[in-house]
Please model this.
Amino acid sequence: MRTALLLLLALAVAAVPGSLVPQRSSDPNGVTQYFDDNPELAPIVDSLQGFDVYTSVWFSSIYLLLFVSLIGCVVPRTRHHLQALRAAPPRTPSRLSRMPAHTVRTVTAADAPDGDAAAAAVESAREMLRKDGYRVVVFEGSRRSVSAERGYLRETGNLVFHTALVGVLVTVGIGGGFGYQGQRVLVEGQTFVNSLAAYDSINPGRFFREDALEPYSLTLDRLDVTYEKEGTASAGLPTDYTASVSTRRQNIPGADDATVKVNEPLSIGGTEVYLLGNGYAPRITVRDPAGDVAFSDVIPFPPQDSFLTSLGVVKVPDGLAEQVGLIGFFYPDQAKGANGAYRSEFPDVRDPMLTLNVYQGDLGLNGGVPRSVYALDTSGMTQLAGGDTGVEALELRPGETRPLPGGLGTVSFDGVSRFAAFDISHDPTKGVVLFFSICILAGLLASLFVPRRRMWVAARVGSDGSVELEYAGLARGDDPLLDAAVSGFADRHHAAVTGGPSPAGVPGFSRSADRAGS
Amino acid sequence: MSPYSRPLTLLAVSLAASLALAGCTADGLADQYKAGSAKNYVAGDGSVTEIAAESRGAAVTFEGQAESGEVIRSEDYADRVLVVNFWYAGCPPCRSEAPDLERLNVQFQDQGVRFLGVNVRDQADTALEFAGAFGVTYPSILDVDTGSVQLAFSGSVAPNAVPTTLVLDRRGRVAARVLGRIDASILETLIADVLAEEPQ
Model:
């Protein structure tokens, strides 16, 4: 058991790097960023599998050793416990007075049962102990005695606890491989379909199969965000996010309305749809010099601060003399800071403004190579506005149109919608993990609170016809109530034998000093 | 059984499990995720699925609005071989394969084959400019707002990458699928194979 505890500690320590360095499994973009920020350190961290801590060789070996240790502990104990369950309680020790809890009661000859008084007393003790949940066996010899044991549930609970722990590990380790977790950003009015092509990114489990995706579609009708308006410190803090969605099933006409809130996911098609992020998506239209629309779309701008100053990239690949890229800041409540830079003062749309830096040249899309939608590779491009160009960045209020530098055309800011970032996950292990977790809790409670103890009652008839009753108890494990249990049973049993209640002072009742456990 | 053989068995089993869990096989989909490129689409590896006539699923029925505003229905393509391409303008492999698709469109036009695009991300103007830039003459349904065409095609032979190209037989059933950028000669063979099937 000590080995398992040490391994558990080692596991906890080994998990620490996973929270210090971004992990590929949960934050692949963070890993890319880390490589950019720490070009010298990153390859070293990577060679130590620091970006894949939870699947690394060293982490895996700790939990597999823990596994082996747990199984190596549970298997022999189960075998031993099964034998103990079948075995009768052990023979009554000859000197009960040496037991940690011991007490003596005497039944006078007058009160003693007729016939074989010792046999009758032991028989009644056997019956009472059996009713109390003890497993009992009667021994005959120089004196009659009953040996009783209870609390097998304690060890059963302990074994259930450890087995269920292994169960959780196996379920999560293997069952988790059948799940998947995908992400998709939807602007109000857009629809997500649960097929791979519709995901922005997806993290499949090891045994993921493409046909595991159950067909359904989910349209983001509206995203409502409520902000705290009062207070100086709290103003602008979001108090509620509600995504109103409508869902459709394949080959079933009609849609169902539903809402998704933070921590209130929508269950659909074997997946849980979580609302993870939000932000603004300005509607931008770019026209060529003749006035024909070259590009029109709502572009999600990821927020950069708590007041939702947002940064986005617009790529106009077709329709103009050259490809055009726009890097824009959106301020839902635009204000000018002391240094002259713009910032947002409130996260809700109050005084929205869009600023755009303009680039022309090759967007890098035609080579067939994947490009980040949230970044503009300006290496093959010329900057036309903003920054050091000498041309002011374009500033637009909703409904405004500005000419693009170089006579490329015009750009319009038509309005702004909200976008929601959804996380769609399928976890087939949930039910099984819940079952094992309940087993873990029940097993733990049983192993903590069920006392395991042995109790003996021995009867000897004295020369004067009185019966001396000896009671003794032995705790197996920690049992602070052992003394009380033994003396309590002694009182009840004595009363039963003498045929009446047995508070102190009743004739025929003599009480010797209870030996406290030692 | 000696007292030591059981722990050894356990060790062997757990080592085998560790190999399985730590994963020695490369998984394209998982690697894409781990690459963290923020490219925002699930790419295909060019893998081709062909389905024999007797094992094809049900005919796919769909309906959607094209860039021109015209409504396009699956019935419009009754008794024709149809090539369906899922794409959007900002997706690099889609741009790269567009000229090949248009060439095959022209090549098979007279044999009754029709091409149809399904744009999964863009609005009409962006899609039209793309068609203009690459000389694409076949229409595309705009599916970003309703998702209805993607929903109709999802299931066992779903469009599981951008781009995905499907070849539908004369009965409207999916007969072949290419995930990722097409290889023109492979798609040509796939179309010719379906075209060669007996009209039913």
